Amino acid sequence: DAMVIQNPRYQVTQFGKPVTLSCSQTLNHNVMYWYQQKSSQAPKLLFHYYDKDFNNEADTPDNFQSRRPNTSFCFLDIRSPGLGDTAMYLCATSRLGQGVSEAFFGQGTRLTVV
Amino acid sequence: GQNIDQPTEMTATEGAIVQINCTYQTSGFNGLFWYQQHAGEAPTFLSYNVLDGLEEKGRFSSFLSRSKGYSYLLLKELQMKDSASYLCAVRGLFMTTDSWGKFQFGAGTQVVVTP
Q1: In DSSP terms, which residues pair with A37 in a beta bridge?
Q2: Do A31 and A88 meet the contact criterion of CB atoms below 8 Å apart?
Q3: CA of A82: how far to CAs of A42, A65, A112, B24, in Å?
Q4: pLDDT, position A100
Q5: Cβ distance of B103 and A103 shorter than 8 Å
Q6: A39 — contact with chain B (CB < 8 Å)?
Q7: For residue B91, is pLDDT > 70?
């Protein structure tokens, strides 16, 4: 089945140690999103891509970077994680163009910074 | 920007009906989407509205009034498995300098279904 896959599902990292989260999709969607979700809060958009065109939310910390080397893959790099970055990180995809498309989510990566 | 408001929590009895309201203010609108999210899991898509009116999908229905910036999700014949958070999301316009149809979410309404 076509889907959005995130790896790893769970990640524990030390304070200040760089970490990379990955997302892949088989839906061939042209838009990919990264969201951060803390407990009982709304998913907060960090970045999104339309193909390789990148859009960074104004309040996304510089500590967070993203790469999309091709249509299928997208990465979230946290250069120096702080304790406040402990959260669920959600990758989603959507189709931009014909008709209305909802966002399809991966299972998420639960990141714990210790 | 966008401001999306929904109640924090609602409780209802198994078999009953619950209506979750969502109000929004947005600088660009291209659809209102509803998602279900169980604890520790990713959101799953339920329903969407682009035009005013009611959309029905089985036990779930969603309504939109664009002039009022208002939507609701109606859950009928509640089951215990419906206990979850329900997220309202607004999709932005396409092809603007800061949005390619990005989704902005409300904080979610936690629905508790009791026996």
Answers
A1: A88
A2: no
A3: 20, 15, 10, 32
A4: 73
A5: yes
A6: no
A7: yes
Q: Hey, what are A86's tokens?
A: 């402990």
Model pLDDT for residues B30-78, shown as the tens digit of each residue = 899 999 999 989 999 999 999 999 999 899 999 999 999 999 999 999 9
Rounded Cα distance, B52 and A23, in Å:
35
B87, A42: Cβ pair inside 8 Å? Answer: yes
Please give the span between the terminal C-alpha atoms of chain A, in angstroms, as a whole number.
36
A23: helix, strand or coil: strand
Token pair, residue A16, equals: 């200040």
**Identity of the residue in A31, A101, A105 whose CB atom sits nearest the CB atom of B42:** A105
Task: Select the residue from A95, A100, A101 to test the B interface by mutation, using most B Cβ atoms within 10 A.
Answer: A100
Inter-residue contact A96 to A33 (CB < 8 Å): no
Considering only CB atoms, which chain A residues are within 8 Å of B48? 100, 102
Q: Where are the alpha helices (DSSP H) in B14-74?
A: none
3-state secondary structure at position A88: strand
Beta strand pairing status for B60-65 and B53-57? antiparallel
CA distance A113 to A32: 25
User: Taking Cα atoms as reference points, which of B4, B30, B3, B12 lies closest to residue B110?
Assistant: B12
H/E stretch holding A13 reads strand A10-13
Q: Which residue has the tokens 């406040």?
A: A84
Torsion of CA B70, B39, A29, A77, to 10 degrees: 120
Beta strands A73-78 and A64-70, pairing class: antiparallel
